[in-house]
Amino acid sequence: MARDGGLVFAPKPRRRWRWLVLLVAALVFAARPRLAVVGLGAVQRADTALAAHFVPRYESRLAHLQAENAALHTRLADAQAALAENDALRQWAGIEHPAERWQTARVLRRWGDHAVLAGTAPVGAAVCDAQGRFAGRITAAGADRCTLTFAEYLSPAAAGFTGAQAGLLQRGWRLTGLALPCDLPPGTAAVTADGLWLGTVTGTPAPAADGLSAEVTLCGTADLAASVFFIKM
Q1: Which of 56, 115, 138, 194 could join 110 via S-S bond, C-beta 3.0 to 4.6 A?
Q2: Per the omega criterion (within 30 degrees of 0), is the bond before 205 cis?
């Protein structure tokens, strides 16, 4: 202790707490990334717990919705690719999109060979799917609904034209009655008598059972499971 004129002065305390504060601040600064992760994890756990309490089976429902969303995006991408391919094939085959008026028709009921559509349309009217592919024709009409018979089941059979060949469409999207010899290459476009898209030749034409003609199977045909069709008016 120091003395000055009889007074006693205590030495000033060292300011060690300042160094302690600086040390703690440095440690917190260095640990920021880990603290952020821990804090985020805690928030996520709290969010999940609250959601599970107020919305039962929240996580399973969320996973299901995310899976459905991914599937829808995949289907949309596939549909866009199919539309692009369809347009490319139409251009390659020189087939223009029909310019007539088209009426949308919702499917009310469906069977293996036909479907009942909402609305009315003239018997014989051509029906296509959303991509403009021939699906069949209206074979019966009522006051507020009509019957679509699918292309493979039409009677008389629908005529199909591919390359220099002409044939009749049968079940299994087979174009039959083609003249021999038949050397249609795979990918050759097939259309109806009124220029609507039927599909493309797949594989090599094979002799028919009668031995007097050939037949081919078509791919890229109409989606008969669609919920909406388009009637050519």
Answers
A1: 115
A2: no
CB-neighbour burial class of residue 128 (10 A; exposed 0-12, middle 13-18, buried 19+): buried
User: Do 232 and 128 touch, CB atoms closer than 8 A?
Assistant: yes
According to DSSP, the residues that pair with 133 across neighbouring strands are: 197
pLDDT tens-digit series, residues 125-166? 999 999 999 999 999 999 999 999 999 999 999 999 988 888
Contact 155, 141 (CB under 8 A): no
- Output the CA torsion sign for 5, 8, 14, 15: negative
Query: Per this entry, what is the length of the chain?
Result: 233
- 92-126 exposure pattern, b = at least 16 Cβ within 10 A, e = fewer: ebeeeebeeebeebebeebeeebbbbeeebeeebb
Strands 189-192 and 174-178: unpaired
Give pLDDT tens digits for 79-109: 666 666 777 776 777 666 555 688 999 999 9
Q: Are 230 and 129 in contact (CB under 8 A)?
A: yes
- Strands 165-170 and 174-178, sheet pairing: antiparallel
* Model confidence, pTM: 0.58
**Closest listed residue to residue 138, CA positions, set 165, 158, 116, 157:** 116
